[in-house]
Amino acid sequence: MKCDLCGDNDAKYKYYEVDSEGIREMNICNKCAHRKGIDFAPRTQEQKVENIKCKECGLSFKKFKKTNHLGCPECYNNFRSKLDSIFLQTHPGIVHKGKKPVKNTRLLSMKKEIRGLQETLENYVKKEKYEEAVHIRDKIEKYQEELKSIRRDK
Ligand SMILES: [Zn+2]
Ligand SMILES: [Zn+2]
To answer: Could you tell me if residue 8 is inside a domain?
Structure first.
């Protein structure tokens, strides 16, 4: 398997990135891991990552990865904080080989909006206002659907 970033070297590490669009799984080479300053973990850790479960609803990271849907407001925090401890997150918008970054103001403003909503969501979760959190989560999902459709039009 080739590296998802440079496409030249063999991928040695699996890397997860959690952002407003859900989870991205990337296979990257040694060189790119260093270049990106990614605190990479060897593939043997993959199994452990898959087994991470949400304390609240029991949703596993494996399932989340598959569906990209959170089981409860706590999931996002659970997975993100755990992943942070294993993999260092890069900035959102990592450039994939063969894909140019989309410069679209609507897209950018929506991303900003989603980020804002996610902050609100995290605040609600912290305050244990789960009903509100679920509402915000639904909103985020709607935005993400819209984002996807904008991308499809490109
Ligand atoms: Zn590479
Ligand atoms: Zn959960």
So the answer is: no
Structural domain containing residue 66: 13-153
102: in domain:
yes
7 alpha carbon – ligand 1 mean position (Å)? 6
Residues measured by CB to lie within 5 Å of ligand 1, the ion: 3, 5-6, 9, 29, 32
Residue bearing tokens 């898959």: 50
pLDDT of residue 84: 56
CB atoms within 10 A of CB 136: 21
For position 153, what pLDDT does the model report?
Answer: 67
Name the closest ligand to CA 57: 2
Give me the number of domains the chain comprises: 1
pLDDT in tens, 19-52: 666 777 788 888 887 777 665 555 445 556 777 8
Residue 1 in any domain: the answer is: no
pLDDT bracket for residue 88 (50, 70, 90)? very low
Least Cα distance to 140 among 123, 119, 122, 118 occurs for: 118
State the pTM of this model. Answer: 0.34
For the chain, report the end-to-end CA distance as a whole number of angstroms.
Answer: 28
Looking at all shown ligands, the one closest to residue 6's CA atom is 1
